[in-house]
Amino acid sequence: MSSFPRDLVTDILLQLPVKSLVRFQSLSKALYELIKEPCFINKHLKVSIAANRDRALIVLNSNADLSDPPGKECFSVGFNKDDQFDFTAPVKMCQPLEHSRIYGYCNGLVLIFSKIAGCYAIWNPLIRRYKKLPRQPIELPPSLSPSMKYRGCYAVLSFGHDAVNDDYKVVRIVRFEAPRSSGEPDLNDIYDLKIFSLRLHSWKTVHVEWSKESIPAHNSVSVSLNGACHWLLVAPSPIGGIGIDVVVEQPQHSLLAFDLATEKFRDYTIPVLPDRFSDLDLAVLKGCICLYESGRNLKDSNVWVMKEYGVVSSWTLLCTIVKGAVPWSICCRPLTYSKDGKEVLLERDCARLFWYDMEEKRGRKVKFGLMPGVFYVAISGRDFEVYTAICDGSLVLLDGDSVYNFN
Questions:
Q1: Beta carbons of 54 and 18 less than 8 angstroms apart
Q2: Separation CA 279–CA 326 (nearest Å)
Q3: Of the candidates 105, 101, 127, which has an alpha carbon nearest to the alpha carbon of residue 114?
Q4: Global pTM?
Q5: What integer pLDDT is reported at residue 388 of this predicted model?
Q6: Contacts for 158 with CB less than 8 Å, ≥ 6 apart
Q7: Phi/psi at 112 (nearest 5 deg)?
Q8: From the centroid of its chain, how far is CA 155?
């Protein structure tokens, strides 16, 4: 390497897939030092995303009867520039945690949680490295009196990249529900916000103010974009109260964003409101926030995108998924566009994949070949578990722990 200009070597290496670069680290100390530099890792990630190189679909298999070892089987499926999945030769891999679900993915990294292990991990499936997060139990904030009997609590999470500080962060918001009783003054719900920093490998408590009249929906899928985490925000209905699942009056929804650099909240209005027959969820499509409808009794499902981030007037109806075009569907989560932009890849009910032609308004099932045809088989109510992620080639977490591989 010493006989070639460093810039030339760097330019060549930037064009290579992550698997090759991981192997090349062992060729020389100079290559090892170059490839692990944060500046090189960031440049390589930008090239990978721009070129759709190393793009892969990660599929977790939650069916313990099919897993070997139980609960840890997963697949990486190549996804080339021509929108073809290589299901004939899926790469069988091992998850770092048993029976995991996906809580978010960003820049080739995936945040997973295992109820069995009781912990979270940030995982780079394409280079088979991961880091477990330190345990952070949910505890009553010091401001709460032990004598106060709160009805319960729930947590919402998100995972994203703080580009200002070049740090990957996990955000956890816990809401403690105050008791409600007639004839007595209502207590305020208590919120506890904590952030995990991958760079510091530690959690911290963040004290921020935002509208407590609105709360992140406990079953809302979180998405990350432009250095912020996003949830659907729900303003409680006057009838039924906070935390009541059956809402008589239609609740008001908006989009909540948490800036990972400034650690401030902001919210945006959305172009559509759900009714008691439908729900709303979030996704990201080609760098745009995406909002889509789901529900068993919907005639058609609309998909909206915010074409200009943060500009409410840029919400645009992308397409309508007509009933019957994707058979037996309750929830169709958009994952990505086709190369020509005419089709969108849908994850149907966390179980199958379909390409949906937005002009012809018809779907075609993706054939799985040598993989299990259904990658998740148990759906309970609206609490859909997420078992797929689309990952770009990334070298982030080169210093992480290795995951055992089947191959």
A1: yes
A2: 18
A3: 101
A4: 0.84
A5: 76
A6: 103, 104, 170, 171, 222, 223, 224, 229, 230, 231, 258
A7: -125, 155
A8: 15
State how far the Cα of 208 lies from the Cα of 172, in Å rounded to an integer: 13
Least confident of 256-265, 283-292, 312-321, 346-355: 346-355
Instruction: Kindly state the percentage of the chain with pLDDT values over 90.
Output: 31
Task: Look at the block and give the residue holding tokens 């379909």.
Answer: 354
Q: Which residue has the tokens 């190189």?
A: 53
Query: Is the model's pLDDT at 318 over the cut of 50?
Result: yes
Q: How far apart are CA 175 and CA 330, in angstroms?
A: 28
What angle, 0 to 180 degrees and rounded to 10, lies between the N-to-C axes of helices 38-51 and 6-14? Answer: 40
| The token pair that represents 302 in the structure block | 């609309």
